[in-house]
Amino acid sequence: MLNERSVKIRDEYCSRCIICSSICPFEAISFNRESGEVALDIEKCQVCGICFSACPSSSIEIAYYKVALLSEHVEKMRKNNLVLMCRGAIIRPELRESLRKNGALDDWAQLYVPCVSRIPPEFLLKVIEAGVKRILIIPCEDNKCRFKVGSNISVSRFLLLQKLLSQIGLNSDALSFVRSSIKAYINKYRCIGCGNCAYTCPNSAIKIMPPGVAQLDEASCSGCGACVAVCPSLAINLEGFENNLILETISKHRSFISEAKSRGYGPMIAVFYCQWANFPTPDTHRSYVRENIAFFEIPCSSMINPLYVLHAFSEGFDGVLILACKKGECKFERGNELAERHIIALKSLLRQVNLENRLEICFASPKYLGEIDDQIKLFMSKIHL
Amino acid sequence: MIIVKEKPLNEILGFLLPYESVLVVGCDGCTQPPRGLREAMTYAMLIEMGAKLKGKTNLKCRATTIPMQCDNHICSTTLTPQLEGINAILSLACGVGVQTLVEVFPEIPVYPGQNTVFIGSQEREGGIMHEKCKACGECLLGETGGICPITNCPKGILNGPCGGCVDGKCEVPFEVRDETGKVIKTIAKDCAWYLIYQRLKKLNRLDLFRKYRPPRNRVISSSPRLLEVV
Amino acid sequence: MVQAFSNLMKNILDGKFVYTGELEPHKAIDLSEVISWAKTLKETGRIVAANVTDNPKSLGAISSLVASYVIQRETGLEVIYQLRCSDRNRLALVSDLLGAAALGIRNVLALTGDHTRQGDMPTAMPVYDLDGTQLVDLMHRMVYEGRDIDGNEIHGPRPQFNIGAAANPNFKPLEVEVLKIERKAEVGAEFFQTQVVFDVNVALDFLDAVRHIDAAFLIGIFPPRSYGQAEYFAKHVPGVQVPAEFLDNLKKISEISDKKERRKRFDEYNIEYFFDFIRAVKKKPSCKGIHIMAVGYPEVVGPLIERVEGA
């Protein structure tokens, strides 16, 4: 049985303007001139939400990031500043510092969305109306958008909105944007020059330079983290997803585990999900919990490595599930295949301590509702404590 | 590269179960696959988990790595400060590293975490490691078009190809094994001497192919070997 | 200058066209079967010598040196003692060669030998201290210089045997095989016995290609006892070409239901086919004889040679 689709076109409201069809970066929406039918091919759809924010008649429904839900969330937080950023984007220390300087740091609401281009301008207006003084938008770098054109569309849209806002007399910094994308960075003192990263990088952004140290071309790095997973010396980290940060985040769940266990939940599951395979809403943190399950976001399943998995086990999780994009839907070409290879290798190690069934990789996509929950349920049923 | 293959965890646990505080030492040198800090940490955690499952809850592992385990000076300077309270060492280096640690720290038991397999290189795409050099001590590559018959011919003969070369393929099946030693696939490999013939013909040096090579002096490759460096 | 120590080499030097046979002792101590085959070969009066195989296909068998000696003693048939490098280092090779000489063995065929992985004890350590060519070199030094390969002197009289080596006319490209044969001849190979050839053209091309080499070439043939044997060569022995016509005819004969009739027709057809084959290769000056590997089928050998030589 197929799960319900997360993106739908409501035919009764559709004005047949076919903006959606022309704007979709994956050519998933077709318009039949004869029958007048606008149809969505869900297999091609990547749930970026660009059509949703572009539709002038609000006839496209998307299960994630409903405007009402988001604005309600922001209103509830009662902050003067809003930072709205793409999942692939990063707040660099310089930016954080400038935010701190103008007092925004203690007074902000933060929202991650998979591509800011899914946010329609009316959401921003609603937020301003609700009392937010300043909005900072952080889309990905120009050519790093996971949905091809999302970053560019959102930037041109916000420039237009900025103009409109200044016409009604709003301060120019009421709406600003900075582009930045997650990058890897290499500790050259730790690098042993094995070349694994250079071979694995899908963008050939890493080269081994004399005297045998990996060198990253930042402009080419797309921030998938595949290099992090293959580095045997922990010399590579990803901005915002540093190895230590991930390990600490896992460790922070000790009390969650003991609490959930005392309530009789079980088994305890850690899910490492690709940020493009699972769209939890509202998305404010890069990890969250539900019942007996802790979710940890990673930029691509190919970043998964034995360290995170074994650390999760040693902190008390009973099972670890890796959630990767479906075949052919990886935003970095073949990150999901790499992840699968890593998991097969790790499972062969775990087999030797009889923990093989505690680790699994599954492939899901946000285009069908509940698909991820089904996978988690299936995995849980296989764990026998 | 020195190609290594991890030992089965049960064998490692067999070494380490009598101890309580184990230092897992990676090597950043020439082991392939690399056995650096991450590998050391991975093994430290796996060993603790495995020990727990065997009912030994007080076995604790620390992980570290050093640039080259085969260098006794590096071993002694970088590891000495980390040995406080340690009662056994698990080395993730090749056999040279294990023995160097034994020499440098004679009072601490050192165990190998790897099987040292051969000198070779990795075919990145297929993930298969190929043996390339036997360290025979009298390199022949200059006469054989850069293809080593000592390593690539299962018989290691000097006047090949032998009668087992058919259609350019070797008569001996080349087996790829998994971590348990089970044969997972068999590869029909090219006959080394056939490749040498093709290469020398291309280089217009069939005289080198035709040349009779007398028996090797096996003393040169008899273990243990010593070499004086001036 | 090649000296003739054996009847085989005497015949060759006398310009006679020679025939050799093949005997395969098994993993057993009872040699009576192989002795009876040897007697059959001897009784033909045409087989000048017979090879005694040494762990063929790396299947462990009784020592070929012992078998060679016993066969020669029991039947009077001269043997060609096969010796492979797979199982012996240079010390053992020298020992066995001295032993062979002491026991009156006058022909030795030097072989590199199939890899031990191919055989019934695949976990064995393959030796290959020397290869086939180097073994020829060793034998040549023993016979003509009275020294082993490291230059140590052999006390007393020098061993006396004629040195054989293997060749493969089926090898492609033939150029490689010719270079190898030149190499072996350079270090002292006096006669070559070849791998099985079914296709006469393969044999003729080979004989042309080696005509500049100063050694005697004995072309190897294998009259199949049954259709199955021929089919085995066609399908499972890579590199050996079996002409389709030959196979077809054998298949037709194999379909004859009367056992006696079938046997008779097999013998007749083999004799007919190889009669043509031998007659053709015999015309080549580099061809000094035929090596008939009729293992377990010695009864065809006599009539076949009669047919050729009687004609």
Topology:
The complex is a heterotrimer of chains A (385), B (230) and C (311).
Chain A lengths: L6 E3 L9 H5 L5 E4 L4 E4 L9 H5 L5 E3 L4 H11 L3 E6 L6 H9 L6 E6 L7 H9 L4 E5 L11 H18 L7 E3 L6 E3 L9 H5 L5 E4 L3 E4 L9 H5 L5 E3 L4 H9 L2 H9 L6 E6 L12 E4 L2 E6 L7 H9 L4 E6 L10 H17 L7 E5 L7 H12 L3
Parallel strand pairs in A: 5-6, 5-7, 7-8, 13-15, 13-16, 16-17
Antiparallel strand pairs in A: 1-4, 2-3, 9-12, 10-11, 14-15
Chain B lengths: L1 E5 L2 H8 L4 E7 L3 E2 L4 H17 L6 E7 L5 H8 L8 E4 L3 H10 L5 E3 L1 E10 L4 E6 L15 H4 L21 E4 L5 E5 L4 H11 L3 H5 L20
Parallel strand pairs in B: 1-3, 2-4, 2-5, 5-6
Antiparallel strand pairs in B: 1-7, 7-8, 9-10
Helix pairs in contact in B: 1-2, 3-4
Chain C lengths: L6 H7 L4 E6 L8 H13 L2 E6 L11 H12 L3 E6 L5 H13 L4 E5 L20 H13 L17 E6 L6 H13 L4 E6 L3 H10 L6 E6 L5 H10 L7 H11 L4 H24 L4 E6 L8 H10 L1
Parallel strand pairs in C: 1-2, 1-8, 2-3, 3-4, 4-5, 5-6, 6-7, 7-8
Helix pairs in contact in C: 2-3, 7-10, 9-10, 10-11
Describe the 3D structure.
- The complex is a heterotrimer of chains A (385), B (230) and C (311).
- Chain A has helices at residues 19-23, 50-54, 67-77, 93-101, 121-129, 150-167, 196-200, 226-230, 243-251, 254-262, 306-314, 335-351, 371-382, and strands at residues 7-9, 29-32, 37-40, 60-62, 81-86, 108-113, 134-138, 175-177, 184-186, 206-209, 213-216, 236-238, 269-274, 287-290, 293-298, 319-324, 359-363.
- Chain A is an alpha/beta fold.
- Chain A has four domains: 7-62, 2-Layer Sandwich (Alpha-Beta Plaits); 67-177, Rossmann fold, CATH 3.40.50; 184-238, Alpha-Beta Plaits; 243-382, no CATH class.
- In chain A, a hairpin with a 4-residue loop joins β2 and β3.
- The longest helix of chain A has 18 residues, at 150-167.
- The two termini of chain A are 30 Å apart.
- By secondary structure, chain B is of the alpha/beta class.
- Chain B folds into two domains: 2-117, 3-Layer(aba) Sandwich (Rossmann fold); 136-210, no CATH class.
- In chain B, the strands form three sheets. Chain B has a four-stranded mixed beta sheet.
- The model of chain B has no long low-confidence stretch (mean pLDDT 93).
- Chain C is built from eleven helices and eight strands.
- An eight-stranded parallel barrel of chain C has the order 1-2-3-4-5-6-7-8, surrounded by eight helices.
- In chain C, β3, α4 and β4 form a beta-alpha-beta unit.
- Chain C is globular and about 60 Å long.
- Chains in contact: A-B, B-C.
- The B-C interface holds B 154-167, 171-173, 194, 197, 206, 209-215, 218 and C 86, 90, 111-112, 114-115, 117-118, 126, 128-134, 137-138, 149, 166, 168, 171-172, 176, 179-180, 182-183, 186-187, 195, 238-239.
